[in-house]
Amino acid sequence: MATALKSIGPHLECDICADKYKQPKVLDCMHSFCQKCLEKYYTSRYAGQQTIPCPVCRRETVLPETHIQGLKTNFHLMGIVEEVSLQEKVVSSVKKTPEEDESKCQKHKGEVKWFYCETCEELICRVCTVVSHCKPKHHYIESGEASRKYKQSLKDMFPDFTKDIKRLEQSLATSSQAKQKFTQNVSKTVKAVQDKADKKRAEIITQETKMIAEIKQLQQDRNRTYDEHQSTLTMMLESKKHLLGRSQDIINTASDSDFLSLYPIISKDLKSLKSQNPPQIDPKLSYLSFTPGQRIGDINLGKLELRQWEMCREFGTEGRGPGEFNWAQSVTATQPGELAVADCFNNRVVICSNEGQHKGTIRVQGKPMDFAAIHNPEQRLLVLDGSKYVKVFNMKDNTLVMQFPTVPKHQVDKTEMDLQSLAIKNSTCTIVVGDIKRMVWTEHRPTDGEILHTIPVQTPPYYLAVDDDTERVVVSGYNTGKVDVSDSKGKTNATIRPTINGEPVEYCRGVCCDSSGIYLVVYQGGDDDTGHIHHYDLDGRFLDCLAQGLYYQCGITFTSDGQLAVANGHSIQMYHKV
Q1: CATH superfamily of 310-577
Q2: How is domain 2-103 classified at the architecture level of CATH?
Q3: Which parts of the sequence belong to the RING-type domain (predicted)?
Q4: Which residues does 68 contact at the CB level (< 8 Å), separation at least 6?
C-alpha cells in the first residue's frame, strides 16, 4: 500500500485549492475536486446552469437535482488521503475510514452490503435483497463476484481502447508529416519568388515584398489550421490515455466498494470516448506553388497558385418577366445543370439553367419562402408559400402532387405556426421542415408527408441544411446572429457566432453543407453591401471568408457540379472554385 500511495502522491491535491482533497467529488471526466471548491467554482461562474465544465479539461458534467452535493463522492480517493494524513501525523489508533462506512448499509443498521444489484447498479445488504431489491424484478449477485465480473468487462474494453490510441498517434504523425511537407513547399515557393525577383530587383521589389507577405500569411493561416487539428488530436489522445490509466489504476488498487461505486462512470466514459473518431484534415491544404510571369515590358513577377472561390457570373434583374426576379428569397439545385429560384413577390418559383436560361414557372398562392428538391426518379420539389402546408410539385410537369401539414390534421386550424425552412436528408429522402413559431423542426416521410419526428430547437430555424455524411442539422437563426449545429435528435454539438471585422454579425441567413463543411451567408445591418459568405467546419470553427461586400443575400446552395448559387435580391450569383 505504501508503494501505491507514493506513486499517486501528486494526485492527492485539489487542482482548485492546491490542498489535500476534502470530501472529493468526481466529475464525468474522472477529475476530482473538493466539494466546497466545486461549489464556490459553480456559484461564482455557472450558478443556475444544469452543467458544469471541468476546471482542468473543460469537459461538461450534467449536474443532478442537488447540484454539487449530488455528485458521486470519490471514497477511494478519500481513503487514500486519510491514510496519508494518518501517516504524516504518526497516529497510532486506526480511525474508521469512509470505505468502512460505505460498506455498511445506510437503510438497514448493522447490515453489511455483501451483494451487488445489477439492475440498479448499486451495492445492497442481505435485507435489501428481500425488501427493495428482490427477485425477479431485480437481479443481484455477491459483491466479490460482481467486482470480478465488471473488472473483466472493463479489461475487455482496453484492447480496443489501445487500438484507438494507436490510431490517434498515427493520425497525429500523418498530420505532422503533412505540415512538414507544406513547410517545405513554402520554402521552395519563397525561393522561386526570390530567384525571379533577383533578375529585376530594382523594378519589382514592391511585388516581391507583397507576394512573400501573402505566402507568409498563408503559412500562418494554414499552420493555424494544422495546429488546431493537432491540438484536437492531442486532446483526444491525452483524454483516452488519462481515462485508460485511471481505469487501470482503480481496477488494480480500489476495494470492491470503491470500484463498484465508480464503475458506472468509468464504463460510461470508456464507451463514450471509444466512439470518438479523429477529425480529418483537408489534404489540399498542403498545396502551394509559384508560376513565374512571362511578361518582360511591364514587370510581372508571377502569381501564387491557390484554389479559392470567386464569382463567375450573375444573372437576373428586377422585374416580373422571364429572367427577372422581384426578390429572390431562396435557391436550390433541382437536377444536373438546373436551379429553382423562389421569386418571392412575384408569387412564383422560377426554373432555370445554371447559366440563367429560363426553363419554366410554378405559380403558388402565397409568397415562396423556401423549397427543397428530392433527388430521386420521382423528381419532387417541396415549397413553403406562407401557408400551414408543405406543397409538393412534380418537376416533370410543374403540377401540384400533394400537400401535407407539420402537425396532425385535426390540430392544423388551432395551431399557430410559421414554416420558414426546408431541407432533405439525402440518405433517406426524409423531409425536414423548420417552424419558427413552434421552435421545432419536423421530419416527414417523403412518400406521403407523414410526421416521423418533432424536434425542439434553441435557435429559430429560419434556414436549414443537412450534412449528408453525418446527418447533422444546421440551423441558421437570422436575427439571432448565431447558427447551431445539432445531431439528428436536436442536441446542439456546436454554436457558430460569426463576426465581421471583430464585431458580431446581426443576421445569419442562408446555409448549405458539403463534405468540406458549412457555408453561411452573414450580414451586418445598416449598409446594403455588408454581406459575407463564410466557411466553417462541422465543429463550428471558422475556415475562410469566400466573399464580402455583398448585397442583401438570402438563400445559398450547391449545384450538381460543385458551384455555389446565392440568391441576391433581384439576381442569382454563381461562384466557382479556382
Answers
A1: TolB, C-terminal domain (2.120.10.30)
A2: 2-Layer Sandwich (3.30)
A3: 14-58
A4: 25, 35, 38, 39, 42, 52
